[in-house]
Amino acid sequence: MMSENSGVDVAALRREARRRRILANSEDRLRSITGKIASSEEEPMPDTCLRTYLDESNIERPIPSLQESISEKSDADIDFTELPRYLRNYLYFKRKRREENSYIKLIIRMRFHYIILSIIAQLLYLFNLGFLFYNNLFCPFITMKAMELLFIRDLVHNQEVNCLRLLASLLRGSMLSNAIQAFSVATNIISDFLLYIFSFVLSYKLLNGIKETYYI
Prior knowledge:
2 domains, 8 helices, about 75% helix
């Protein structure tokens, strides 16, 4: 009985000793691993080694930074003395373009182009060149008006149109908008045509008077 108990105790002691050896080996291995990690963190790789590796390897160089690109340019390449001249030219051409547009709008607003068109038509009739517009007085006007309606969007809106808009406020929005637009275009065409006819008749009288005076 005693021999059996002693055998069990020896086996238990052996298992305990084996467990302790395993724990000791595990602790030693863990210490060695943590020590290597700590030493690698305390002693980082120097920049010279990294640069040497990059220079000796086939890795392409990265894109240069903005500061490197700017530093490569010398001060002579950037001439700031020309900036005032560029600004003056820009402002000059911008002002000139604005003046040209204002002149065109003024001519369109004052309807001078219809007066000039009537004089041109009268001269063509005088020199027997009316066949260029089929001897029809309406063809030059219709052509000019079509160009104006197609290429000049801002028609003149009179105060009468605003009054009609207030009076017809009970109508639907789409009907009111279409009616106002049709009235504006019709008024514009009629007024321009009357100016064209008046200028044509006046130029006819003036040219005939000059012609009779010249032959007398």
